[in-house]
Amino acid sequence: MKTRVLPVSRESIKEACEILRRGDVVAFPTETVYGLGGLGLETAAIQKIFEAKGRPTTDPLILHLPSPDLQEAISAGWVTEPVPTFAFALTKHFWPGPLTLVLKRGRLVPYPLTAGLETVAVRCPAHPAARQLLSSLGAPLAAPSANRFGHISPTDAPAVLQELNGKIPLILDGGPCPAGIESTVVSLIDDPPVILRPGVISAESISESLGIKCEISTSLSQKNTPSTSPGMLASHYAPQSPLYLCREPIRHFDPKYQFILFGPREGSSASNVHSLSPDHRPETVARNLYRTLRKVDSLRPTSILMDPVPDSHLAHALRDRLFRASSGNATWDGTRWILTPRSQN
Ligand code: TXA
Ligand code: MG
Question: What are the residues facing 282 on neighbouring strands?
Fold first, then answer.
């Protein structure tokens, strides 16, 4: 199959809708990462998504909604009551935007989308192209990140093409994603709500908008067994070359490795040193993280060494992604880098 890449326009959105309505899949930009969309209420389209990604069918998908009004999703049969008041408070505050809510599955949502669970993850994206696509379609889209299973999420159209060339008919190119890491996933099945995946919206701002403290689920992040959030496996978002997280800010540059710094390159102009943010802003780091990992990984280095993540409102999300992407830790012993693989248990 030939994969076409078309810039977002009225015509390309119309064409995307035609492809989606006949049950096929289309990649499109969101404010977080590119999604691989298919009709969310159609089992055959959902199966196509799992096939194109090579994703296990035990890992449920997010249903992307055309409207930020949660009541509409309830009336349409995509979410079932009772819906806690917390959910309405969160959607009023953060939708459209990078927040995914886990609620009770509506009767029209097919089990393949939820991987058999009685819950469904829903979000209304803010990206203008995603909103245009969803409102032209007038139906919800199942959409995981548009990468092959276990790979780094794509944050621009060339990255989607690198991942899914020949497997999907169309990529809508809306340029680089402004946020660069995935949405925050919050379970409202639990009381108080629990953050299953830290993301663009911090635990602090969620807690603040609810007036209660929201915990980040830790049981899921550091092991390799699927649990209540089946997609949260420890090894995920991984480059092909092993990635090592440095315990202290990198000051020593060995030509054997590729180095990724959080701040500016300052003294080092060597071609094996890369910066995530010339301005030190966590938002810039998030926006550049996956693109930089992908670029550095394409050089196929023996190892990639990464600066520690400084504290900020995005630190949880960045540390979560880097932990999953990493093979272990690196320390400088005064003369050389010591790379310690993460133990498997
Ligand atoms: O930013 C995002 O969320 C992007 C864009 C495309 O919207 N999507 C995305 O989807 O990251 P995906 O499939 O790569 O990640 C969805 C996460 C997985 O960890 C999955 O296990 C979890 O959401 N999830 C989905 N349904 C769930 C459910 N019913 N209960 C718990 N976790 C669920
Ligand atoms: Mg993903």
Answer: none
Select from 182, 184, 188, 216 the residue to mutate for testing ligand 1; criterion: most ligand atoms less than 8 Å from CB: 182
* 74 phi and psi angles, rounded to 5 deg: -70, -50
pLDDT in tens, 238-290: 899 999 999 999 999 999 999 999 999 876 778 999 999 999 899 999 999 99
State pTM to two decimals: 0.95
For residues 291 and 178, the answer to whether their CB atoms sit within 8 Å is no
Distance CA 340, CA 245 (A): 10
Q: Atom 12 in ligand 1: which residue has the minimum CA distance?
A: 144
Which residues sit with their C-beta closer than 6 Å to ligand 1? 30, 32-33, 35, 59-62, 98, 100, 102, 114, 117, 119-121, 125, 143-145, 182-183, 185, 196-197, 229-232
Q: What domains are there in the chain, each with its CATH number? A: 4-216 (3.90.870.10), 243-344 (3.40.50)
Given pLDDT bands bounded at 50, 70 and 90, which one contains residue 226? very low
Q: Residue 221: pLDDT band by 50, 70, 90 thresholds? A: very low
Strand pairing report for 243-246 and 304-306: parallel
Answer whether residue 102 shows pLDDT above 90.
Answer: yes
If you take atom 7 of ligand 1, which residue's CA is the nearest one? 35
**Probe residue for ligand 1, chosen from 62, 145, 156 as the CB with the greatest number of ligand atoms within 8 Å:** 62
- CA dist 121 to 62, 74, 170, Å? 5, 13, 25
Phi and psi of 279, rounded to 5°?
-105, 5
Atom of ligand 1 at shortest range from CA of 143: 6
The radius of gyration of the chain from alpha carbons, rounded to an integer in Å, stands at 20
On whether the CB atoms of residues 62 and 156 are closer than 8 A, the answer is: no
